[in-house]
Amino acid sequence: MLHTPKRWFIGRPLRSDRLGETLLPKRLALPVFCSDPLSSVAYATEQIVLVLGLGGLGLLYLTPWLGTAVVVLLVVVVASYRQTCYAYPNGGGAYAVSRDNLGVRASLVAASALLVDYVLTVAVSVVAGVAAITSAIPALAPHAVVLSLALVVLLTVVNLRGVKESGRAFAVPTYGFVAIVFILLAVAGLRLATGQTLTAESASWGLVPDHRTGGLLTVFLALRAFASGCTALTGVEAVSNGVPSFEEPKSRNAATTLATMGGLAITMFAGITALAVVTHVHMAEDPAHLIGLPAGQEQRTALSQIGLAVFGGGPAFYLLQAFTAAILVLAANTAYNGFPVLASLLAHDGHLPRQLARRGDRLVFSNGIVLLAAVAGLLIVAFDADVTRLIQLYIIGVFVSFTLSQAGMVRHWSRELRAVRDPRTRRSVRRSQAINATGAAMTTLVLLLVLVTKFTHGAWIVVIAMPLLFVLMLRIRRHYDTADAEAAPRPGGVTLPSRIHAVVPVVKINEPTLRTLAFARAIHPDDLTAVTVRVDPAETDRLFAEWVGRDIPVPLAEIDSPFRDIVQPLVDHVRSIRRSSPRDVVCVFIPEYVVGHWWEALLHNQTALWLKTRLLFQPGVMVTSVPWQPASSHAAMDPEDRTPVGVG
Amino acid sequence: MLHTPKRWFIGRPLRSDRLGETLLPKRLALPVFCSDPLSSVAYATEQIVLVLGLGGLGLLYLTPWLGTAVVVLLVVVVASYRQTCYAYPNGGGAYAVSRDNLGVRASLVAASALLVDYVLTVAVSVVAGVAAITSAIPALAPHAVVLSLALVVLLTVVNLRGVKESGRAFAVPTYGFVAIVFILLAVAGLRLATGQTLTAESASWGLVPDHRTGGLLTVFLALRAFASGCTALTGVEAVSNGVPSFEEPKSRNAATTLATMGGLAITMFAGITALAVVTHVHMAEDPAHLIGLPAGQEQRTALSQIGLAVFGGGPAFYLLQAFTAAILVLAANTAYNGFPVLASLLAHDGHLPRQLARRGDRLVFSNGIVLLAAVAGLLIVAFDADVTRLIQLYIIGVFVSFTLSQAGMVRHWSRELRAVRDPRTRRSVRRSQAINATGAAMTTLVLLLVLVTKFTHGAWIVVIAMPLLFVLMLRIRRHYDTADAEAAPRPGGVTLPSRIHAVVPVVKINEPTLRTLAFARAIHPDDLTAVTVRVDPAETDRLFAEWVGRDIPVPLAEIDSPFRDIVQPLVDHVRSIRRSSPRDVVCVFIPEYVVGHWWEALLHNQTALWLKTRLLFQPGVMVTSVPWQPASSHAAMDPEDRTPVGVG
């Protein structure tokens, strides 16, 4: 029944042998895997300015220094991950790398961090994109939650259609955003070079500090601002995770893409931060603290203030706004590429339900995509599509996985060193190891900073969620292991049951019952009994009379049921057969009414279902459903099955 | 798993042969079946005063006349229903009577009216009771919905325990209410006889009319007030419906109980109405229309104003309030006795799902009780526990069923007349018929009045709900009829299938698979194939190698699946077997993992379940589940099954 709309949304199924076709050339891989890190430059600068603003205008002089620190960190992390692309051509996410080098538990820590972060990427990016839209069109503001959910659905559908098509769909906004920001930087450079002054609308506004400063307090605020600026690094992981999706040579293409992304992101972030300083952008977390903001006016985002100052309104400014909104929404797409692949790896290793490891009709991991969308949707609803609150949960997971991944790479190179003798190769390996060691050290430091400065601002939620996920994944694996061990073939082999006792529960004599009896007789069991439960004595007597009258060649037994229950006496009956001959098997034949509409299920089969469930818990019992297909069940049938062939 | 709490709430199951024990003596039958009509005197007078008040104080002179009209109606209806008790000793609800005399469709109209009304009885009575409580303890007012739902749950549990116990539980409040009202009337009579004046607190308050009066408008308002006063008649039906629950002689005891109830209700209603006139109770639907009501004070109910005037505060007044609240809540119990019995009759006749016809552990119709509670709970939530809005939906159903029931009785006596020759008996039958004819005529008139005067005030909801229910019941019956006709044994009998083809889907070789193969071999099918779907070529090759290595004596076939789907290729395979030999039957053996915890269901059996569902739609296929019970399934097992006996 769900066939036609599914086809319409998702497209026709793709054959497995077309998997190779969905590999990505670099120019498509960039928008698919890099929209997240590229889009973060839209808000990273603003985060620094906002937090510094808590200490008043006096602290804004720190902006360039903090910006520089973020750039340095970005360089180190990109360099680090390029090593990973080469070392792990089959996908070197933090999970694979730490599993390989640090063991299962460390890899599960990384995995839970990544899973949480992918979900947050979707939620934060979509909500931020919607916020950009609603600040352009204030009439849409009350519908932020619905708009966000609609975008999540849109992204889900696009991704369910398969990787290649989404690469194409997302190229325009990503390249558009990069282009418009570079135009912004170029125009600003030109105007500054010709001696013009660029002034943000907020340059003249004052700011009431809401934080004491001086000494350690200033240091703490600066560190918190730096931690917030680190949102520029979110999503760098995605490329190394996606190496298998690149065209050959996979590793080299991935490393090149990563470097390109790094170059673009650094230039854009540095340029925007510089312009924020030059144009004197002043912002406050609480607009009431801004002196000079006209009543009723919302403060614009840092990037749009810069855009206004440079372009002075006009089409270029609106283009900047539009592309910003577009890339923010599409950044979520990075997670749609990363999450399902990671979930399938985890499912393959038995840490998540097996359904997540299976590729869907369009060769993507459909279940993972749907799961990601569902959880992100819940977060959006729970946090009422509020960017400020959601963003506090972000980056902890990023830096946990960064740290584990880099630490794992250090170990990886140590092992390589043991195998390599050639001095030139050894030198190159040592250099790679040094790069990853620097990365590991720096990301560890930043992780501690983020934890300390953001814990009370909402990060504690992630600090609780990650260990829960970690324990869940450990327990799922333990469950599968136990199940497999129990189910392992036993050395003695399986002995055939000595005899088969067939039991057919009967309520009244009709075609389904008679057919069930015929099927039961067809397997030639060692004995066959029809059994009825005496609830209403008059009815039971009528049944016996009809049974004799019709000359049915199967003995009919009755069971007493003083408590009017039908299921328990039948279960007891089956149990007593098994008890008297434990080497035999009991086969219970249950007629089942096949329903064509969901509501028919309320009118039929209630007792059959309950009886079946109870019997499955009995050792040495098999339960055979003999379906009865009335005309009404045809509604839910394949057309070719619609004319029942009939058994006799 | 639900066993222990269920026992604790509901009690141990009762044997069917104890059904006789739950019969009620008259002194218990009165509270069980009459708390509804008795409790209505607590608000019927108030309804008259409230509606008349819409026209200003000038119309209150009509109160005694309208009160008299209600009393006359009550006498007629009680007299009418006493005839029914004698004519239908097996339960003469409007449904049975109109089915017998007016045909199926009329009876279903009556049934839908009754079902709607039982639900409303629960909702209105519970909410009114809670309103009585919250006006005594204003702090509870914000929790009215939760309190109402808690009371519904309490009533449900008490009723699930069985009729007799609820009779006892409800005797005290019912008799207590009757007693305190009679004390009220006696004290008032004494004080008036000794020349004292009784004045309600509202006697001096003025009233702004919010309705034009004069001519037809006055007549319309008077009729609406009368219609509202008819709430005093709700629930009279219950006794005639419950005749089978009375001790022998059932009919006579029921008729006596009905007469007793009528006498009590009429005396109480007439007395309270007289006192409302004497003490000058002034009330307004909208408190803002009362001149003199102190700011911030809510107007008290009419009965409590009379109580204050007569008892002058003190313990007797609070006792009156407490018993009023108690009987209002317990009035809902009438519906708990009526609804499940009616639903079981309807289910027995195939108009409602069959589950409703089955008696539960404690010999009551548990499913009906739970259904009633659920729908009433929904209504309470939807109407925000607001008595004024809920009460507008009331009485339409009551008078529909009154009318049909009395009209049915008129026909019933006509048929009797045809059979009877003895002049004395004929005279008695003619007298009965006259009583019922009067009843039918009067209730028809009142029904029209209620419809016209209350339609726009909310009654339209019921006018929509009843036909929907009517159509639903017709369609359920038609569905069962079609199903039975299709399932009727065919004249030719069932031919045994010629051959059995057994198919065992295999994913990997483990104990559940091997056991399933052993069970399949044990039935000695004409041919047996293990089938695997080639999704991952490497895995399939490994499976074949192990199959050969283990020397499994069943051929293993593989099916290609270019789209990675497992279920569809297997269904196609089964279909092709059937197509090449349509007189044979295919038996598919599916290993099923028995789970002990609900969450394990997410980790196992997903494919097995889907495959099974799809196969049941195939004609000539039976599906055998071979359960595999791992240790973790023991959590949900009966202790005696916990040590698997093992098959070989």
From TrEMBL, chains A, B:
Entry GO CC: membrane
Listed transmembrane segments: 59-81, 108-133, 139-160, 172-194, 214-236, 257-278, 318-342, 363-385, 391-413, 434-452, 458-476
PANTHER family (UniProt xref): POTASSIUM TRANSPORTER KIMA
Annotated keywords: Membrane, Transmembrane, Transmembrane helix
Signal peptide: none
Keyword Mitochondrion applies: no
Membrane topology: Multi-pass membrane protein
KW Glycosyltransferase (keyword) present: no
Protein name per UniProt: Amino acid/polyamine/organocation transporter, APC superfamily
One of the Pfam families matching this protein, by short name: AA_permease_2
Listed GO MF terms: transmembrane transporter activity
Compartment(s) where it occurs, according to its Swiss-Prot or TrEMBL record: Membrane
